[in-house]
Task: structure prediction
Amino acid sequence: MTDTPVEQMTFEQAMKELEAVVGQLERGDVALDQSIALYERGAALKKRCEDELKRAEEKVAAITLDATGQPTGTTPVEGQ
Result:
């Protein structure tokens, strides 16, 4: 685990650390108190990744939809 606050991590940093946390928990070679700390850190990392993905999806939607909600660069399908 790094000492970097989760809210300051990039998506890539959070994913990398989350993969390491999952690996440690899957091996099961850590004490219970450390497992709990790893689980809590992993949950925070997962939320950070989800939040970053949501922001990215919103950005993509904003640049690919016009004011009427239609995809840009396409013509509306007749009857819709």
Observations:
- The CA atoms of residues 21 and 39 lie 8 Å apart.
- The first helix runs from residue 11 to 27.
